[in-house]
Design brief:
Structural class: alpha/beta
Radius of gyration: 16 Å
Order of helices and strands: EHEHEEEHEEEE
Number of helices: 3
Shape: globular
CATH architecture of the largest domain: 2-Layer Sandwich
Largest sheet: 4 strands, mixed
Strand order of the largest sheet: 1-4-3-2
Helix content: 10-25%
Oligomer: single chain
Distance between the termini: 14 Å
Number of strands: 9
Number of domains: 2
Length: 142
């Protein structure tokens, strides 16, 4: 794997209820909330969840869409489709995730094998949706 200085910093997802989405990502994926208290107190426009030391997912309230005018032509882009986000975890974490998805009756795809990704072929991967319909893929490599 190449060690280059470019890294994924964050992904922004449109969500209806940031607190509920944060709970989903915390409870199902085990991701740590960031700025949730500040968001609830009106001190931050949205919460995030931490994927790694260097990467977060921002959970942007869809109600803020009319205010996001910094990119010309971006008005009306709320809910613009993103195909999916993929997270890579350990084999143990993958097994635990499958169990949590089943316990919470979260609809999911079948488990696939040998799907290509950033680190080559993954041993297993699974797809499911968050409460706002964003498609998540989680995989583990050998």
């Amino acid at each position: 794997m190449t060690d280059n200085s470019t890294r994924l910093d964050h992904v922004v997802l449109w969500v209806r209820d940031p607190a509920a989405s944060t709970a989903f990502y915390q409870d199902v994926l085990g991701l740590e909330p960031v700025r949730l208290t500040e968001h609830k107190n009106g001190e931050a426009p949205f919460p995030s969840v931490r994927v790694s030391d260097e990467t977060i997912i921002d959970l942007m309230p869809v109600a803020r869409a009319p205010r996001l005018t910094m990119v010309p032509g971006a008005d009306g882009s709320t809910g613009h489709p993103v195909n999916h986000i993929c997270l890579s975890v350990t084999e143990t974490a993958f097994d635990a995730l499958l169990e949590r998805l089943r316990e919470r009756a979260v609809p999911m795809s079948g488990v696939s094998h040998n799907s290509f990704g950033a680190r080559g072929r993954a041993a297993r991967n699974v797809y499911f949706r968050d409460p706002d319909g964003n498609v998540m893929e989680v995989r583990h490599y050998d």
